[in-house]
Amino acid sequence: MKPIEEYADLFERLGLTELYVEEDGCRLRLKKDTKPAAAPVFVGGFPGAAAAAPDIAAKPAETVVAKPVKEEVPAEKPAETKAVPAGDTVKAPLLGIFHPSAGGTVHAVGDRVKKGEAICTIEAMKMMNEVAAPRDGVIRAILPKDGALVEFDQDLVVLM
Questions:
Q1: Is residue 69 predicted with pLDDT exceeding 90?
Q2: Where is 148: in which H helix or E strand?
Q3: Fewer CB atoms < 10 Å away: N or C end of the chain?
């Protein structure tokens, strides 16, 4: 029989997983474990810690199922709403920056306006868009401040 080292060398060179030899009444069995080696486990963030925790590395990997985490969102404070005076409200026809002036005239509470007259302006995309009064009346309240961002359908002016 050849020396064991020759069989071991042959075993490695050919990439065998098992080799069985029976010669002159002697038997030799070389077998390689085909299970993948366990990956090193890093504990505490440094490689040397794996040797300190061999029981963790020896355990088979567990399947972890992610569960959704219910994220607690702090309750929003209710928006402070101003009491809107009684009357008909003129709403913003588009999103933009509010200006109480229109056509060179700055309107204020108590001003009398006629149907179709521009009562304020909304600036959008560098264009000035006049908002017309839907009916004759007196301005009872101007709700947004000059330069405030207003949204579509937001109350702008109250007429009585």
A1: no
A2: none
A3: C
Q: Which residues contact 140 (CB under 8 A, 6 or more apart)?
A: 85, 86, 87, 109, 158, 159, 160
Q: Are 122 and 94 in contact (CB under 8 A)?
A: yes
Q: Is 98 exposed, middle or buried (0-12, 13-18, 19+ CB in 10 A)?
A: buried
The verdict on pTM exceeding 0.70 is: no
Domain boundaries, given as residue ranges, for the chain: 1-36, 88-159
| β-bridge mates for residue 99, sequence order | 121
User: How many secondary structure helices (H) and strands (E) does the chain include?
Assistant: 3, 12
pLDDT at 4 (0 to 100): 77
Q: Residue 119: which residues within 8 A CB-CB, separation 6 or more?
A: 90, 102, 107, 113, 131, 132, 133, 139, 157
- State the average pLDDT over residues 68-94: 66
Token digits of residue 68: 């959704």
Percent share of the chain, pLDDT over 70: 67
